[in-house]
Amino acid sequence: MLILVLKRILLGLITLFIVSLITFVGVEVLPGDACTTYLEREAYGAALEACYKRLGLDIPAYERYVSWAIGVIQGDFGYSLSGEMKINDVLGPRVKNSLVLASASILIGIPIALLLGIITALWRDKMPDIIISTFTIFSMTIPEFISATLLILIVAIWLEWLPGIVIVPTGASISELLPNIILPVIAISMIMTAHMARMVRSSVIQVMASDYVQMAILKGVPYWKMVFKHVLPNALLPAINVVALTIAWLLGGVVVTEVVFNYPGLGRLVIESISNRDLPVVQALAIILASIYVIINLIADLLTLMLNPRLKSLQIKK
Amino acid sequence: MQQVVQEIKNLSIGFTSKKGEQISILKNISTTINKGETVGIVGESGSGKSTLALAMMGYVKHGLFTISGECIYQSNDILKMKNRELENIRGRKIAMIPQNAGQSLTPNLKIGYQIDEALRLHTNFKKEDRDVKISELLNKVRLPSPETIAKRYPHELSGGQQQRVAVAMALAGNPDLLLLDEPTTGLDVTTQAHVLELLNFIAKDTGTSMVYVSHDLGAIAQVSDRVIVMYSGEIVLDGPVRTILKNPIHPYTYGLLKSIPKLTLSGLPNSMSGSQPQPGTIKEGCSFYDRCEFAEDKCKINSPELEFVSELNTSVRCFNHKKLHKKKDEDTKSSKKVLRKLNKNEILDISSVSISYAKQKFIEQLLNKIDDTNPTVKDINIKIDKGETLALVGESGSGKSTILKSIAGLIKAKDGIIKFDKNKILSNDLKKRDANYLRAIQLIFQNPDESLNPNHTVEEIVSQPLKLYFGLSGNELKQKIIEVLKKVRLGEFYLTRYPRQLSGGEKQRVAVARAFAAKPDIILCDEVTSALDVSVQAAVLNLLQELKVDFGTTYIFVSHDLAVVKAISDRVAVLYQGRLCEIGPSESVYKFPSHPYTEVLLGAVLEPDPDIKPKLVAEDIVEEKPPEKGCSFQGRCPRLLGQICKTDVPPWQIDENGNAIRCHIKINDLKNQQISN
Amino acid sequence: MTLVIKQEKPKSTFSKIVEIISTMASRPSGLIGLIILVFHVTLAITSPLYAPHDYKAIDPSLMLQAPSSEYWFGTDSLGRDVFTRTILGGRTALTVTFFGSLIALLWGGALGIFCGLVGGKIDDVVMRIIDAFLSIPWILAMLLIVSLLGTSTIVLIPALGFFYGKGIVRVARAATHDVIAKDFIVSARARGHGNFSIIWNEILPNVRDAIMVEGAMRWSWMLLGFSSLSFLGFGVSPPTPDWGLMISNARGLMSFAYWAVLAPIFGLSSLIIGINLTADAFAKALGIDRSTKAPV
Questions:
Q1: Which residue from A minimizes the CA distance to C222?
Q2: Which CATH number fits domain B346-569: 3.30.565.60, 3.40.50.300, 1.10.10.10, 3.20.20.80?
Q3: For each of chain A's 318 residues, which pLDDT tens digit applies?
Q4: Fewer CB within 10 A of the end CB, N or C, for chain C?
Q5: Pairing of strands B209-214, B38-42
Q6: What residues contact residue B36 under an 8 Å CB cut-off, 6+ apart?
């Protein structure tokens, strides 16, 4: 068991290493470097020299990678170009803000998704399924920026129930943030919930068609008991990994949603740093977002390992 | 008057096709199950037998619905009951033992919990009493150390153990009626015999009525008092087991019994033409009309009713059943003599072949540590003559298919040499083999659904070897394909068909045609009949035999079915855990099975005759790995000599009939022991 | 006994396509999807012929006019006709994503089949790299590429094609894995067919459907991604009309002029739903269940 866990962690680290290489090489290979892209037309003479010096671009690429990587391992991403401040200080509050937004969406989204998925599967092809499934198909196909824009138009502008744009400073506390994130959370969790509900639905339907569920029915197990004891544990297990992939994929959606609502999180920082051509910050963001992806998948893997009796006994045997 | 447990009246179950037609899977089924009686329901796949069994519990699968009729249990129609009422009947009054226990036990729940659940639902025992009861039940189904078994998850048990757990679970509610849906299909020969013996014991012990659903007349013969034969959703024959199996008065049952290979017969069984019609394709007349050798014109237009023949106490659905009354037992035993011509001309020489499945781990690779003391298949020495049919038999895990694959070059043998045509060494790497040797050895697989590319037409499938080995194209290719298809009795119109448009038997014919298109010297047959229905199996066996006579092909025939092997083979090699136990001419191996394992195996064969009972000589233990030292069969041998069997590999001995066995006991002593038993 | 069985003609590729499309159209959802898709494609090809106004004609005097008989969908903040810009707004998106998913399909399918077939160490390494690519949020990667290389279609098509192809690699690989375990592949190998012949004759016909369905799905996701880029200002450069960009521009003023934002929203949403319904119906017509797949 322990060996398997360590193996998964190691694989995650390898993935992160490859990500760091890809971003580093990517920036290296693409035309222009951090200084020329940042300074644009002023990229000549002393200003360029100074910039090179400050970023250490005058030393060979592999040395730069090694020293950067060592810094990252120690939790130091170096300096940003535009603000001339430590990237850590730039990132800190943004990470917190995005985490608040993302966790709120996940906390609300997952239970709703489970509920909807199970309802649609148990009432398959009946009214509740048809209504919910139609709704989920719509909400998973419409891009976040459209649903977010429509939400603002309807809820904030026409109905005037909630503020449409988040107007809090980057360093705001969680209690200041919470009232402002209602609409963004709805926008993000709508699409995520729809995706997950669809997967839970098909997983439950698959298990309901299995021989052992038929056997439970023929054994005289009452319906709801059968659902909770025989169906759900087996249906939700494979769904865990897929759900994790969905969450990770939707990180991209968080970026767009943050822009629409002017929310001071990582997503807006992505856009800002790219518009400012602040490549060191972009690199740091790539690593951080990739780590989130790797961590979510790691948690899903470990959960599956812990809950699956098949894998459990496999480990004991070895 | 006997007490009736369940009465089925005019039951029809069907589905609505895509075109909106209502298609019946069960048509007007009427019968009764009496108290204490075991009724066997026999039929091929698609005959509706499982649907009938499920309906008896008030369960109709998703997509199916009851068209008419009722299943009456204690004067109530089960099919009209509410879920609440059904929950009180299922498991308590009527219990089911499913076909595939491995998939029918919930994977995330321990065995103990699953049995406890049934007890909690259907008895009033307290917690402590239930724990005792669980052990009792597991004991009753003869599982060793019930306490440990109860703590296991389903996947930690072997197939036979899972099936026993399913039996224990069904017995938990102390039901009046047990429904068994192919409970032994998929189990090894010896395990199957043991489970059947257990079921017979339980039937006697508890007095429960049983309905035993199976395609296997051998199993049905062992357990049933009464047999119902189903064909295409109808009951065609219903009567006492001896009448049905010894004097079958329905042409289908008559033909079916003739087409089953039996140990008591020599040579190939008669084959039956055609296959069971798809549901909904028969609009009028008798559904067996197309395949019936007694059919008359009226059978095409009128459907016969079920008619009671009082002197035989049997109901039959046939206009002409009288023709069959006088045809006695002897007729069903007539079978074609196999033409065997052997010329001593060695074509394949397998010497000291060992095959290991164990994959090297990365670290072991680094340390150059290779564990090859105990390979999956070890020390195989067989010489095969041209035109001979050699059969490899054994239970699952015996390595028979592995050997076949290594001859084909699909698995690399770790040790040993395979020589073709006296002196040409076949490389163990497929890519290094000469194209001519590749052509000379062709494979036919167990399941034609897997071995035929679903996206190719029959023409494309058969053209593959012709294009590859003979470079044919255009009209010449097409003519050749038609010629080959004709050889396997398939007409030209099959050319444009896809495999999904063919029946199981037709698909296997296409696979045979593809193998023969290469003009091979040797054909490797891997369980080629085990995925087929009984009535189709005989036809494929006969076809293989005819082709062999025509082309002088050599067969290496792998099967777990000893009766099939007896029918087709010239020589038999018996394998246990990847080691040879016995090899010799089939007549003498079947007549005098010298090796203890051959004796065990042959003793467990189920004959479709209620008067021939299997002999259970050894325990059915499942061994995961061959023993590291000594005789491979030491773990289960009923005639174990002593320490020598555990330490030394037994020597080869040959008797006067040419049977070679590997045993420490003298071959003549073994024969004497068997006679004295 | 004589059997009279109708001689079945081997089906041509064309008649197979007709059959698939008619199966798709036999469900209401598939029919709606097909109609929407065909409508959008026709619109994209022909709209320049009948667009009532000049899409780039700026006229401050006509700023933010409400819908009228002259300007059906009103005007935007620069006084341009929203109707004209809406019917032209899908052209770039459709072209870029169509060719993008074609590229994704080709390289993803080829690499996936290769990995599924060879297995072992090479497969492990390739999948690790693919995993690493998957873990960089697509939007970050795309933004980076676009900001460094510019937003011309020459950059966008291969970049999108590359990023959306990695998911196809997984699907093609899994499908190939399923197929190569089957006995007909074993049979072909035992006969001595070469790798190329096995891929072409035995594997490709059996994984083709799964890959094509995946490609169709990628199309709708890619459209979503492309519009997001446009919306963020990294897609089509003004004044070329594009729905994502139009929504982004009109968003700030939507409390005064909701028409300028609703029209492109309607255009984009209907196209995405159309492609989605079509892809769904396509999958069902080919007998593939894709509801369990994650959108990666």
A1: A143
A2: 3.40.50.300
A3: 677 778 878 888 887 888 788 777 777 766 666 666 666 666 666 777 777 666 666 667 777 777 777 777 777 777 676 656 777 777 788 888 888 888 888 888 889 999 999 999 998 888 888 888 888 888 888 888 888 888 888 887 788 777 767 666 666 677 776 777 888 888 888 888 888 888 888 889 889 888 999 999 999 899 999 999 999 988 888 778 777 877 766 676 778 888 888 888 888 888 888 777 777 788 788 888 888 888 888 888 888 877 776 655 444 332
A4: N
A5: parallel
A6: B207, B208, B209
Total number of domains in chain A? 2
Are A187 and A105 contacting, i.e. CB atoms less than 8 angstroms apart? no
Average pLDDT, chain C: 81
Give the distance from residue C193's alpha carbon to the nearest chain B alpha carbon, in angstroms.
7
Closest CA to C282 of C205, C206, C179, C210: C210
ipTM above 0.85, yes or no: no
Residue that the structure tokens 């329905």 belong to: B250
Residue numbers of C between 166 and 185 with CB closer than 8 Å to B: 182-184
Is the CB of C186 less than 8 angstroms away from the CB of B410? yes
Q: What is the pLDDT of residue B555?
A: 94
For chain B, which residues make up each domain, given as ranges? 4-93+175-331, 346-569, 582-677
Amino acid at B265: L
Q: Please identify, in words, the CATH class of the domain defined by C91-296.
A: mainly alpha
Residues of chain A in contact with residue C269, where contact means CB-CB under 8 angstroms, are 141-142, 146
Q: How far apart are the C-alpha atoms of A15 and C14, rounded to whole Å?
A: 45
- Chain B residues within 8 A of A313 when measuring between CB atoms: 153, 155-156
Q: Is B64 part of the contact surface with chain A (CB cutoff 8 Å)?
A: no
Q: Could you tell me how many residues make up chain A?
A: 318
C87-100 residues labelled b (16+ CB within 10 A) or e (exposed): bbbbbbbbebbbbb
What are the chain A neighbours of B169 within 8 Å (beta carbons)?
Answer: 219
**Which chain C residues are closer than 8 Å to B481 by Cβ?**
none
**What whole-number distance in Å separates Cα of residue B566 and Cα of residue B263?**
7
